[in-house]
UniProtKB/TrEMBL annotation:
Active site positions: E207, C241
SUPFAM superfamilies found in the cross-reference section: ALDH-like
Start and end residues of each Aldehyde dehydrogenase domain: 3-425
One Gene Ontology cellular component: cytoplasm
GO molecular function: aldehyde dehydrogenase (NAD+) activity
The keyword NAD is annotated on this UniProt entry: yes
UniProt entry keywords in alphabetical sequence: NAD, Oxidoreductase
Record protein name field: Aldehyde dehydrogenase
Amino acid sequence: MQQIVENQREFFHTQHTKSISFRKEYLKKLMSAIEKYEDEICDAIFLDFKKPKFETILTETQFVLAELNTAIKKLNSWAKPARKSTSWANWPSSDYIYKEPYGTVLIIAPWNYPFQLAIAPLIGALAAGNTAVIKPSEITPNTSEIIVKIITEVFPENYVTVVEGGVEASQNLLAQKWDYIFFTGSSKVGQIVYKSAAKYLTPVTLELGGKNPTIVDATANIAVAARRIAWGKFLNAGQTCIATDYILVHKTVKEKLIHELIETIKSFYSSEIASSPDFARTVSAKHFEGLLAMLEGEKIIFGGENNPVDNYLAPTLLDESKMESKVMEGEIFGPILPIISYETLADIDTYMSNYEKPLATYVFSADKKFQDTILSKYSFGGGAINDTVIHIANKNLPFGGVGASGIGAYHGKISFDTFSHSKAILKKGTWLDIPLRYPPYKLSLDFAKKLKKMF
Ligand code: NAD
């Protein structure tokens, strides 16, 4: 591991990655390789957890291709020193922010969007001029393999490389000195990463998880809400960091919402969900068993069918899960959807204040005042009004958590900024040297007292 980091650091010091044309050349090569291997990527993720090809194209390959497209098109303007207005105290000067790469960065990815979450941060890292080491998840070995194939084909090892493996490999990597660490995964492992980074004061982005509520009030369009919640929840078989974790629904529309959710699920996947080509599987036996354990003692309204042979768990709706129950303890991360009724804002508050700040929150309502109340009262990474999940698809919006759901954000230009240090530079000529700041100070004391307006 140490040798890999040293080789990359040495390459970084050659200054090659500082050239914008060099960065663009490799971003283009990466783009071509992803296009070339798009079918193989789909096959790999299908082998890992039967993710439907459409979902892989939508949320993995085309997602990163769009990020690449933007980075290649915009890199010149992103990387240009940005002129800032000067302060009177420094007049005459011209002031700038220079974007500089951190150096050698480590990217650790999870299994749930195994291609996107390894490659999207890489695009930001390379656009900003860094070298990178990627550690994909060991839980999706077929995707890990295709990532190795693409990266080895496109990049010299001292520029970008992949280290495969599990916890041990990850911890060995974390023991090295990095210039930036970008981690996507659970809050628990996020704490381990943060501690390792502290040793060298390495800056981090932590993209973590949370328990995301979707609130449906009495004014909501229930049929549309059901479709948009079900799509966001059962996409990737519920293994999405920004999927609805549980629904808080006004008691007057609860039955209608349940009815619409059931109809929607049937219309998406037919009545034979296990044989639908459009519904993925839970990623491993361990995760599957963890989900089944959450169903113990719960009132199942719909679903619950399962098959350990391929870790199949049907989209499952639960009625009025208790806050103390296993399913309401932590992030569910599977196709289980507790539906809980509320009557007052105070009821909502009981749930919202019981959990750490989530990665996402969604509100379905036609009442603008209600929407604004939720938006202004509660802190969460991001979200949507009258939809779920799709805020991730706007590259102009920062994607990241707050508090226990993460530190930092990325996508589009924000990725470039994340992987760049903003270096403040003030430029002066020597033709004028106003003496007010030089001793003896007594001559400029009156001037000093007026400085508050001049910085
Ligand atoms: P995880 O934290 O178990 O693993 C993530 C990565 O860390 C993997 O590469 C793994 O090998 C490594 N790792 C695991 N244990 C480690 C340890 N003890 N020390 C060092 N490294 C270790 O997460 P996961 O199960 O792969 O992914 C699911 C989690 O990720 C969920 O909590 C989900 O919400 C979160 N997530 C967040 C985002 C986001 O963008 N915010 C996106 C996807 C997933």
